[in-house]
């Protein structure tokens, strides 16, 4: 098989943006491998608007946003293969893949960019009692059925979980004539963006019940009703709070999981918090020359941030191939630590010699915080103290680190991100 400098696993928004950035950085030996029959990834079924405000300064639908990058890939002559499943990534960055035309084949690569996206948390992980009747879908599956396949999952709907896809599907099902009776959320806060709660639930009079979960599913062949109940300490249902809703559809929107089976089998170090790879300032994993970006790294709230991150991964992969990072390998690595409300940071380490002049560090909080501060400490010295009116787990936060500022602390060992009240 032909060899390539850069092999990108995934042809969704992250893979496309990484490929375009790598090509514009001067490398023309790039291959995108996509398991679906078309490029664009999950954006193809996201027909609602709200995409592209940061990247293109205009409001686009998911397919429109994806097409902007697909067109760039086509115009730049970047190679891609569809209907191709990547089976393995070896330690020497040889990628094993297969499709119906070529069978099983191997591609030696100088750099690999992981851009496989994420998947929905399945019902089996939720331990809901009851049978396994028809009529239970993940929110993303229902979205594909309605928006691409042209099928209506049902007419009376209950949604468990308030992730963004679930919120958007509450509106979508309503617009298609279904009645969404309730959205139940186990946590005391929503897992989605505030704007989606307003636009998808409040505007349509759909109730959101926080600290509630499904405790029973009725129906053997097809779902006929569900019972939800309030949960107390330990997320245990409180007796006497049960409410029964007749329905023919239950949608599950209970979180997203980065798609990292390939990463694990390749020996990539994984974060127990994000379930994605641990990366440095270049978005490089513990395996030299293997980079990660987008939802396979950590679940994003905006696709614009996915594209921005993927652009850095593509540029840094080209830099790695050209040997532009070797001079800085001897520099000391600074550890990033998330604590006291901050759950994680991406990246997890920084080599100040290799970082760009400005480095975006993204993180999420573990609870809702009002009138608090995002603080950054260089060892024991507080250098950032930004007031935030509200912080919520559904909204990704970020801080910008300046290279010139880090160089003022030659003995810096640790950067800590935390949430403080004063």
What features would you describe in this structure?
Helix content is 21%, strand content 33%. It has eight helices and 26 strands. With 422 residues, the protein is of the alpha/beta class. The protein is globular, with a radius of gyration of 22 Å. The chain has helices at 13-24, 62-75, 139-149, 164-175, 194-201, 261-266, 303-321, 403-407; strands at residues 4-9, 30-33, 49-51, 60-61, 79-81, 85-89, 94-99, 103-114, 118-120, 136-138, 156-160, 179-185, 208-210, 212-218, 225-230, 243-246, 249-252, 256-258, 290-292, 333-338, 349-351, 358-363, 369-378, 381-391, 397-402, 414-420. Strands 1, 2, 5, 6, 7, 8 and 19 form a seven-stranded mixed beta sheet that branches. Strands 10-17-11-12-13 form a five-stranded parallel beta sheet. It has a five-stranded mixed beta sheet with strand order 21-20-26-23-24, with no helix packed on it. The mean pLDDT is 93. Helix 4 runs parallel beside helix 5. The chain folds into three domains: 1-119 and 255-324, FAD/NAD(P)-binding domain (3-Layer(bba) Sandwich), CATH 3.50.50.60; 122-254, FAD/NAD(P)-binding domain, CATH 3.50.50.60; 327-422, no CATH class.
Key terms for this structure?
single chain; 422 residues; alpha/beta; FAD/NAD(P)-binding domain; 3 domains; 7-stranded mixed sheet; 5-stranded parallel sheet; 8 helices; 21% helix
Instruction: Indicate how many domains the architecture comprises.
Output: 3
Separate helix tally: 8
What is the CATH T-level topology of the largest domain?
Answer: FAD/NAD(P)-binding domain
Strand content range? 25-35%
What is the distance, rounded to the nearest whole angstrom, between the alpha carbons of the first and last residues?
60 Å
In the CATH hierarchy, what is the class of the largest domain? Answer: Alpha Beta
Q: Cα-atom Rg, whole angstroms?
A: 22 Å
């Amino acid at each position: 098989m032909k060899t390539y400098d850069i092999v990108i696993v995934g042809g969704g928004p992250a893979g496309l943006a990484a490929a375009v950035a790598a090509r514009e950085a001067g490398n023309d030996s790039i291959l995108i491998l996509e398991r679906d029959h078309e490029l664009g990834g999950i954006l193809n079924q996201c027909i609602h608007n709200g995409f592209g405000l940061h990247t293109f300064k205009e409001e686009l639908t998911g397919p429109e946003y994806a097409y902007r990058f697909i067109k760039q890939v086509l115009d730049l002559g970047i190679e891609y293969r569809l209907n191709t499943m990547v089976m393995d990534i070896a330690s020497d960055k040889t990628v094993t893949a297969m499709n119906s035309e070529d069978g099983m084949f191997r591609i030696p690569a100088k750099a690999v960019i992981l851009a496989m996206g994420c998947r929905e948390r399945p019902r089996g992980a939720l331990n809901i009692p009851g049978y396994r009747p028809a009529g239970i879908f993940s929110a993303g599956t229902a979205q594909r059925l309605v928006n691409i396949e042209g099928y209506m999952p049902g007419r009376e709907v209950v949604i468990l979980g308030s992730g963004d896809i679930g919120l958007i599907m509450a509106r979508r099902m309503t617009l298609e004539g279904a009645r969404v009776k309730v959205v139940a959320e186990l946590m005391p806060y929503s897992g989605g963006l505030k704007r989606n709660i307003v636009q998808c639930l409040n505007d349509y009079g759909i109730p959101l019940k926080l600290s509630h979960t499904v405790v029973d599913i009725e129906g053997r062949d097809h779902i006929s009703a569900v019972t939800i109940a309030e949960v107390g300490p330990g997320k245990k249902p409180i007796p006497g709070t049960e409410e029964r809703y007749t329905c023919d559809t239950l949608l599950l929107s209970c979180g997203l999981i980065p798609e990292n089976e390939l990463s694990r089998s390749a020996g990539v170090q994984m974060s127990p918090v994000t379930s994605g790879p641990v990366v440095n300032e270049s978005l490089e994993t513990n395996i030299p020359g293997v980079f990660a970006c987008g939802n396979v790294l950590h679940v994003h709230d905006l696709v614009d941030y996915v594209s921005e991150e993927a652009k850095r991964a593509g540029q840094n992969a080209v830099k790695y191939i050209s040997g532009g990072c070797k001079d800085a390998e001897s520099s000391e690595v600074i550890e990033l630590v998330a604590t006291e409300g901050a759950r994680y940071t991406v990246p997890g380490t920084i080599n100040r010699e290799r970082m760009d002049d400005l480095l975006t560090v993204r993180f999420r909080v573990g609870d809702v915080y009002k009138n608090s501060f995002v603080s950054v400490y260089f060892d024991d010295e507080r250098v950032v103290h930004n007031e935030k009116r509200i912080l919520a787990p559904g909204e990704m936060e970020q801080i910008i680190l300046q290279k010139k500022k880090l160089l003022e602390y030659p003995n810096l060992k640790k950067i800590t991100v935390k949430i403080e009240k004063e």
